[in-house]
Amino acid sequence: VKHVEEADFKLREEERSWALAHQFTASLNEGSNTVFVESTNFQHQDWKFMIQPLFPLREDGEVNASKASLNFSLSDHAQISDDVSQLTNWLILGPFLAKSKVTENLRANKEIHLARLYETEKGIITWEMPKVELVTDVFGAHPLWGSLYDWNYHTAGLAWAIGKLGHFTGKQQYNDYLYDYCNFMLNISPYIEHEKYTINKLNSRFSKLWHSQLLDFKVAPVLPYAYRLHMEADFEKRAQYEALIAETKRYLLEQQLRLSDGTLARETPFVHTVWVDDMFMGIPFMLQASLSTKDRKEQKSLLDQAAEQVLKFHEKLYDPEQDLYHHAWYSGRPDAKLPYWSRANGWGIWAASEVLLSLPKDHKHYKKILRIYQNHVKGLVKRQNTETGFYPQLLDEPGSFKETSGTAMFTMAIARGINQGWLNRKQYEPYAMNGWKALSSVISEKGEVSDICMGTMCTEDKAYYRNRPVVENDSHGLLGLVIAGIEMQKLMQPNKSIK
Question: Can you give the pLDDT at residue 2?
Fold first, then answer.
């Protein structure tokens, strides 16, 4: 791989990978291969070397299509222990003068003998590890994607939910959770920028704080900030909250990938894929941002856009025969039918219910969205297990495993509908009560919550969804559970003041 001058080194963050400026082809054997990289005409003390496969990797480590997985590691090298291989993927040797005999031998033999000394014009050198930088992390991080301390939609969503619980109950410890989470992220943000772009740790624990191109990490995590901004008139760091929300609005309205009709879209797994998940990733922020602005024109514009997004998603993803949402829609293959995944339907109905809470009843789209919500509820309750109260992982497959996050969101949405008068209490209260019974059964005496499906990509393969692991205390499930608890409290004790 030839040396690339610093001026030519281009690195652009995409949704789940990085766009690098140069490409090369390598013939690899099945199994372990040694990659030998030589940098020549080297002029800079501060240099970077990065490499990634061209084919995109899924979050679960699998690859798209039939290409084999590619992992960069020193773990197969006989002279390197597992402890060392966990610290670095590379060994380095040099620098040398341009016409050194050592470089000629290395180029010919590509030898890596760790216990060998090399005599050069500059003295004796040996193979070394690159400098190991200390980066932010969390001890014993679990669950892997649904933790309580990352920068993403579900962790921030949980902080938002707990903050709402604080305002509902009047208990300060819940409000403090929201404040601590938001302020912690603001405090570490400058260091994460340094960590990501100065010492080149592109995928460290909180790296998505900077320059993500995905709603999951760019927009939805700002929900608790927008919520606090309109709930409290004066607090420390308010100016930083305002700046973050303004930046997020600019991104969402001017830079976010969309279809030609304005529907929020993604690059993965194909460019211009529409995920029902993004109803939650984008719409609630629009609503919260509308509440935090004093500009009436901007407020109306954000409300209008939130309502229009519900209609656009509904047009592409909703199956009127099932009254359910497909997980995603491929613009290049509009006839592809993805499964009716439980949590995806949960994101959809949650977002629609937030819009109904925010829109004036005389808004031009209010009645349309109310019908969308009501029809979706009709489709959902048909899939509830009448004995357990749970909804299955795949809504059209009763035999697929019971799943907590979807059950929580559906229970919340039904209880909210009864509380707001969108649903008939006599008809739908049994579904809400049965759902709450199910949720109570997965909460242990210690407060541990089980049977939550871990983070999931989208695919036409139903087996992928059937075989997803379930974990405990995953924030994907906890945020819906907290809001379901609030709505159920209102449902069961509508006249009781909670303090």
Answer: 37
Q: Which residues contact 350 (CB under 8 A, 6 or more apart)?
A: 279, 280, 284, 409, 412, 413, 480
For residue 37, the SS3 value is coil
86 closest CA partner among 73, 76, 103, 97: 73
Which secondary structure element, helix H or strand E, spans residue 391, and what is its range? Answer: strand 391-392
Measured torsion, CA atoms of residues 185, 186, 188, 193, in degrees rounded to the nearest 10: 110
Q: According to the model, what pLDDT value does residue 47 have? A: 67
Rg (CA), the chain: 26
Contact 213, 15 (CB under 8 A): yes
CB-side neighbour CA atoms (13 Å) of 240? 11
With beta carbons less than 8 A apart as the criterion, state whether 339 and 392 touch: no
CA-to-CA separations, 20 to 13, 17, 78, 162, 199, in angstroms, rounded: 9, 10, 31, 40, 17
CB-based contacts of 163, cutoff 8 Å, min separation 6: 174, 175, 177, 178, 224, 227, 228, 231
Q: Is 187 exposed, middle or buried (0-12, 13-18, 19+ CB in 10 A)?
A: exposed
φ, ψ for residue 227, nearest 5 deg: -65, -50
Low-confidence ranges of the chain (pLDDT < 70): 1-10, 41-47, 55-69, 98, 110-111, 496-499
Give the pLDDT confidence score for residue 135 in this predicted structure: 86
Coil, strand or helix: which one is 465?
A: helix
pLDDT at 415: 98
Alpha-carbon distance of 472 to 144, in angstroms, equals: 11
The token pair at 486 is: 């609030």
Residue 157 to residue 200: CA distance in whole angstroms: 28
Task: Please give the sequence-ordered ranges of beta strands (E in DSSP) within 412-491, or none if there are none.
Answer: 452-453, 470-471
CA 38 to chain centre: 37
Alpha-carbon distance of 363 to 366, in angstroms, equals: 5
Name 51's Cβ contacts closer than 8 Å, sequence gap at least 6.
20, 35, 37, 72
- Beta carbons within 8 Å of 403's beta carbon, 6+ residues apart: 342, 343, 390, 391, 392, 393, 451, 452, 453, 470
Token pair, residue 32, equals 């372990």
Distance CA 428, CA 23 (A): 58
DSSP of 236-297, one letter per residue? TTHHHHHHHHHHHHHIIIIIS-B-TT--B-BSSSSTTEEETTHHHHHHHHHHHHHHH---HH
For tokens 């400058």, name the residue: 190
- Cα–Cα distance between 70 and 348 in angstroms, integer? 35
Please state, in angstroms and rounded to a whole number, the distance separating the CA atoms of residues 409 and 348: 10
**pLDDT value for 59:** 44
